[in-house]
Amino acid sequence: MPNHTPRPGSPVRGSKTGKPIMALFDLLGRSWALGIIWQLSQQPMTFRHLQESCESVSPSVLNRRIKELRESGLLERGDAGYQLSDTGQELFQLLAPLGNWSTHWAGLQVENTTEPTSNNT
Amino acid sequence: MPNHTPRPGSPVRGSKTGKPIMALFDLLGRSWALGIIWQLSQQPMTFRHLQESCESVSPSVLNRRIKELRESGLLERGDAGYQLSDTGQELFQLLAPLGNWSTHWAGLQVENTTEPTSNNT
DNA sequence: GAAATTGCTATCATTTGTGTAGCAATAGCG
DNA sequence: CGCTATTGCTACACAAATGATAGCAATTTC
């Protein structure tokens, strides 16, 4: 079982120090972790619904992420399915600005991507 | 070469929609991406210095992340080595609060880790 | 011109993620 | 009760990402 939930204070994937910020980055730096938090911020969801809203992420990964995020106290099960815990919502509040910024960033990308050659936008 | 830099508007690892936030999450959700941004926010660094400050991340991964982050316009090369671009610093401003929050979160984790059954001291 | 430093690439074992199938448990229905 | 549908999840087998290590070409320093 080489896969474990990153916890502040304990070494994590590549991080021997276990500094909180690194443990957090390790937790969030796994596929779909941020996406799951993002989706759940909108509403609680069942496993399958969450899976769909994350563009059909494979159930094995979804299950692992859920497990890790639960162990990290960021999400929990409620009546309507999985949902962000209070801590999870705190975190989401910090992440929320990324939504707008990402579209701003997308704008910059488009500028830099415009092909000087042949592509029709 | 199945590894490419996630760009808003183009499908990315698992994400077929290419929604900016998902492209961003894909970019940041790779090993050491967040850590690299975090480290560079303090000061520009050479490749090797950056590698050390990221707890000896392997050069292959570091090189890939740098490439991706450069293509994403988040970092660039300067006189003193690699550094965050203006865009990268914008992003860091949004991520910065995670530093304090992560220690707060670490506190919660410690609480939850203390054995619940042995309270009868 | 020898040594040290830097920015990488090459290689390969290990870990993670993907895609699909399917199963046990529960819920609704006649 | 039996039938069907949904849900939460596990089990693979295959693909992709990461980790660890070695080392090389191009500077810089002496």
The succession of helices and strands of chain A, N to C, reads HHHHEEHH
Can you tell me the overall shape of chain A? globular
Oligomer state equals homodimer
Uncertain runs of chain A: 117-121
Distance between the ends of chain A: 47 Å
Q: How many distinct folded domains of chain A? A: 2
Major sheet attributes of chain A: 2 strands, antiparallel
CATH class of the largest domain in chain A: Mainly Alpha
CATH architecture call of the largest domain in chain A: Orthogonal Bundle
CATH H level, superfamily name of the largest domain in chain A: Winged helix-like DNA-binding domain superfamily/Winged helix DNA-binding domain
Could you characterize what this model shows?
The structure is a homodimer of 121-residue chains. By secondary structure, chain A is mostly helical. Chain A folds into two domains: 1-30, no CATH class; 31-89, Arc Repressor Mutant, subunit A (Orthogonal Bundle), CATH 1.10.10.10. The first copy, chain A, contains six helices and two strands. At the A-B interface, helix 1, helix 2, helix 5 and helix 6 of A face helix 1, helix 2, helix 5 and helix 6 of B. The first copy, chain A, binds a DNA duplex (30 and 30 nucleotides) through residues 2-3, 13-14, 30-32, 46-48, 56-64.
